[in-house]
Amino acid sequence: MNKIVNFEDSIFILEMRIRMIRDTLLLDAEPELFLERTLDDICFTDDRMRILLAQLQENHRLIDREELLEQFADTEERFSQALREMLEHDGNISIREIPPIQEKIRAFLDSSLERRRIAATLSPLGASVNGIPIVSTDELTELLKAF
């Protein structure tokens, strides 16, 4: 069964979650109240970024695929930055004294960097040589079906 995925809205929601993670680090919050939830948000965001990239990889015929991959990469960059900030943060919600959590955040950071690498290597449908658009065999077959 084909399902419709609204990639733009999904990316937007993940952007908001990442912003919330970053804002939580900036505020003077009680760690007992927010550290666990912040870690859950990071885990959730990491998992959804993984799923979203897989869906983008599977959908070669998306009209705005190149733009969506760019938005995804930008979101992934912000997620990586939030993870780096968490590793370096000295405020109330700090993981500097908790090595197991530091290792987990580093693993999420490695995953994030790998997803950005994968997104960058996906060949966009709008590729061109000297400004002339390249049409793949699949695209040409689709276009010629009407004739």
How would you characterize this protein structure?
By secondary structure, the chain is mostly helical. The chain has one domain (7-144). It has five helices and two strands. A two-stranded antiparallel sheet has the order 1-2. A hairpin with a 2-residue loop joins strand 1 and strand 2 (132-133). The longest helix is centred in the N-terminal third of the chain and has 28 residues, at 31-58. The chain is elongated and about 65 Å long. 22% of the residues are buried.
Short characterization:
The protein is mainly alpha-helical and 147 residues long.
Name the overall outline: elongated
- Roughly what is the average pLDDT, rounded to an integer? 83
Give, in spatial order, the strands making up the sheet with the most strands.
1-2
Order of helical and strand elements: HHHHEEH
Reported for the largest beta sheet, the result is: 2 strands, antiparallel
Task: Describe the secondary structure blueprint for this structure.
Elements (H helix, E strand, L loop, with lengths): L6 H20 L4 H28 L6 H24 L10 H23 L6 E2 L2 E2 L3 H8 L3
Antiparallel strand pairs: 1-2
Helix pairs in contact: 1-2, 1-3, 2-3, 2-4, 3-4
